[in-house]
Every structure is written in structure tokens, then in C-alpha cells.
Design goal:
The protein is of the alpha/beta class and 413 residues long. It has helices spanning 2-24, 148-169, 180-195, 211-230, 241-257, 276-290, 304-314, 329-335, 343-353, 356-388, 393-406, and strands at residues 39-45, 54-59, 75-82, 90-96, 101-104, 113-120, 130-131, 199-202, 234-238, 269-271, 294-298, 318-323, 338-341. It has eleven helices and 13 strands. The longest helix has 33 residues, at 356-388.
Length: 413
């Protein structure tokens, strides 16, 4: 009897001990238990855009902890409901665990939306949603405040252009930096006069609607004036009929201004062909036969640039070229005596034309270049100082440059 009672007592003690252990243990989570819900969801209009995005921010789920392995939350799912719509909640995006922001870029400007965010476990169980209480409405901002600095620069440069144009129209003399290629025109025409040979002028192969052709005809006016003064011979083959007409008008005006209208011969300006290499063959053949003392290439050129410049060099002509075609500049620089490079070509045209609009624009562009160079120098200096003093004012300026000018909010992706 005593032995039997002892066994029963031992069994009861074992059962009580097991119950106490189970009671002391934390409750075990089931595999399909949903994680805790995220909190404090907010939705606001994305700043400085055209009204096509809403930014969401929420607090992470208490189960979204990096020290818990395996993780209890693997992602957040974002739902959206249009206030004036059919009331349906549509999934619009997902974010991985540890992320608490999302930008909804699939919204329409002027429409109001409500949002929900749920945490998702590895087994797919979803938490209770965190929801917004007030609808968010995307709106368009007319001005990007984070790029106010760029507006200041644009206003400064454009204001400089307007100011210099106004000064030129009032008769003020605007200083234009010396252009060696233009000064070489007198030398080339004088040499042709002394040698008793003609001057060849090629205004490119593009039509009159190309700005380089217009600039080339402006330079032709300067060349024709000197030719009229020196009583030299001029030869202008063209590849477009309209260019031929405009060139004739330009040369005639130059002879008239030089007091030699009787020396003008419209047959000196003629049309060859629209075909690129047919035109080149005609011009180079005439160069070989007539051996001009001076060759001018002013306008838009392509593959024919090297053929023309090499032929002119072979006949011993002094050559002056000007073009804004970057791929052709090396050929002209290598084969010609003087070359107006890119913007310098248009600057020469503006200088020769003497028109207030062109002169003012040229000076305004120079101010913009000067400002750009100064900003580049200041930026390099600030970044260098920031490296040695990371806690100073220079570091703060460097951070602004990185985030608002060079970063994602600036001009770099």
C-alpha cells in the first residue's frame, strides 16, 4: 500500500513539474501566425514634381528585427484606395524588410488616395494593416525649390545677354576678343593679290537654313570687301542654289560698300551640284587647275573637309577654315594655316556682322562662360577643403553640391 502510494505521489509531482515548466515557457509561435502590424503610416505629396507621386513612411513592425533569425517579416505590401473610386484596395508595391519608405508613382494629379501597409511573414501570413487616416492628393509644383540656384544662374546669364544687346543698340562699343583667324583674312587676300591668283571661298555643303552656312556668308562679306579693295579675283562654288543667291547678294553688297560695284561679277558665285562628292570633285578639280593663292572654308562640312584642305595644301594656298562640326575640326587644324574652332566661328560671324543682337549675345555668352569657370574653380576649392576639414562650413557646402547639384536631386542620375 505504501509503495503504491509512493508511485502515485511521484507521478503527481512529475505532472505538476511539467505543468509549471510549460507555464513558465513563452508561448510558441505557430508557423502561420501573422507578424505584428507596422505603425504610424503617413502619406504626403512628393515635393518638387508635376503631381505624379505620393511618398509613404511607416514605422517597422515590432517583428521586423535584424537580430531574429530566421526573420519574422520578409516584406511589406502597400495597398491603395482611391477616395472617389470604387472602394477597392489595390496592391501598388512591395518593399523588403527593414525598409519603411515607398514612393507611389502611379497616381493621377488631383486625385485623393488612402493607403495601407501590411507586414508579410515568410509563410505568407499578413499582419493587420497600418492605414492612413487622411487622404493624400498629388499636386504639381510650378517651381522646384531645390533648384533655385539654377534659376538664379539662368536669370543672371540671360540678363547679361539682354543688357549687352541693349548697350549695343544704344551705340556702345562692345569689346570682342581678337580672333587670329579673322586677322589672317587680310594676309591671305594680300598674298593672293601679290601673286595675281584668285581667292577661293567654300561656304560648306549645307543649305541656307543651317546656322553655320549663315555664319560662313557673314565671313564671306568680310573676305569680299578686302578682295574688292585689293582688286583681287574671287571664286565661290556652292552646293545649294539658295546659298548661291544669298552669296551673290552678300558679295555684291561688299563690293558696293568698298566703292567697287563695277568690279562685281555674279558669275564668280555659281552653283555646282547638290551631290556631296560631285561637289568636292568639281571644287578640287578647279583648285588643281587654277591654283588659288588663298582658300577659305567657312560653314558645315563632312567627309569632304579633308579632301578640300589637302588639295588646297597641295597647291600651296594659304588656308583659313571655320566650322562647328567637331568631327571635322581635326582635319582643318592639321591641314589649314588658321582654324576658327566651334564657337569661335560664330563669334567671328557676330563680330563681322556688327549687329547688336549678335554682339550682345556673344558678350552675354562670355559672361556665362566666365561664371561657369568661376563656379567650377570654387567647387573644386570647396571640395578640397572639405576633405581636410570634414566638420567645417566647406563640408556643408560640399554636401549641398553633392545632394542638390551632382546627386539624384541635381543633374546626375
Amino acid at each position: 500500500m505504501t509503495r503504491q502510494f509512493s508511485k502515485q505521489l511521484h507521478a503527481c509531482r512529475h505532472a505538476v513539474l511539467c505543468w509549471l515548466l510549460l507555464a513558465a515557457m513563452p508561448p510558441m509561435l505557430q508557423a502561420d501566425d501573422p507578424p505584428a502590424a507596422p505603425g504610424s503610416l503617413s502619406a504626403v505629396d512628393h515635393p518638387n514634381d508635376v503631381g505624379n507621386a505620393i511618398d509613404l513612411t511607416w514605422e517597422p513592425s515590432p517583428d521586423d528585427r535584424p537580430d531574429v533569425k530566421p526573420p519574422r517579416v520578409i516584406q511589406y505590401v502597400i495597398f491603395r484606395q482611391e477616395v472617389d473610386g470604387d472602394g477597392e484596395w489595390l496592391p501598388v508595391g512591395e518593399q523588403t524588410y527593414g525598409t519603411t519608405t515607398y514612393s507611389d508613382k502611379q497616381v493621377e494629379r488631383g486625385h485623393s488616395y488612402l493607403y495601407r501597409v501590411v507586414a508579410v511573414s515568410p509563410e505568407g501570413a499578413r499582419s493587420q494593416p497600418a492605414a492612413t487616416t487622411e487622404p493624400a492628393t498629388p499636386t504639381m509644383q510650378w517651381f522646384r525649390k531645390d533648384r533655385a540656384w539654377f534659376a538664379i544662374i539662368v536669370v543672371f546669364v540671360c540678363g547679361s545677354v539682354v543688357l549687352f544687346i541693349s548697350l549695343a543698340k544704344r551705340g556702345h562699343d562692345l569689346y570682342v576678343r581678337p580672333i587670329p583667324g579673322l586677322e589672317a583674312v587680310d594676309e591671305a587676300v594680300g598674298r593672293a593679290t601679290e601673286m595675281g591668283r584668285e581667292c577661293l571661298f567654300v561656304p560648306g555643303i549645307q543649305d541656307i537654313n543651317d546656322i553655320q552656312t549663315v555664319a560662313g556668308l557673314t565671313v564671306l562679306g568680310r573676305v569680299a570687301t578686302h578682295i574688292a579693295e585689293y582688286d583681287a579675283d574671287l571664286d565661290v562654288p556652292t552646293a545649294r542654289s539658295l546659298v548661291m543667291t544669298a552669296a551673290r547678294e552678300t558679295v555684291e553688297a561688299s563690293y558696293l560698300s568698298a566703292g567697287r560695284p563695277d568690279s562685281f561679277n555674279e558669275d564668280d558665285i555659281y552653283y555646282l551640284t547638290d551631290e556631296q562628292f560631285g561637289y568636292v570633285a568639281g571644287v578640287t578639280g578647279k583648285m588643281v587647275r587654277d591654283k588659288p593663292a588663298a582658300c577659305f572654308y567657312m560653314g558645315a562640312f563632312y567627309a569632304e573637309s579633308l579632301l578640300l584642305a589637302e588639295t588646297g595644301n597641295a597647291v600651296g594656298a594659304i588656308q583659313v577654315a571655320g566650322t562647328a562640326m567637331p568631327s571635322q575640326l581635326p582635319f582643318f587644324v592639321a591641314a589649314c594655316d588658321y582654324t576658327l574652332i566651334g564657337e569661335e566661328f560664330f563669334a567671328a560671324s557676330a563680330y563681322l556682322s556688327g549687329e547688336p543682337f549678335q554682339l550682345g549675345t556673344l558678350r552675354g555668352q562670355d559672361v556665362g562662360k566666365l561664371l561657369g569657370g568661376a563656379l567650377l574653380l570654387v567647387g573644386c576649392t570647396v571640395m578640397t577643403i572639405a576633405v581636410f576639414n570634414p566638420d567645417g562650413t566647406a563640408a556643408a557646402i560640399a554636401g549641398f553640391i553633392k545632394n542638390h547639384i551632382l546627386g539624384g536631386a541635381g543633374f546626375l542620375p
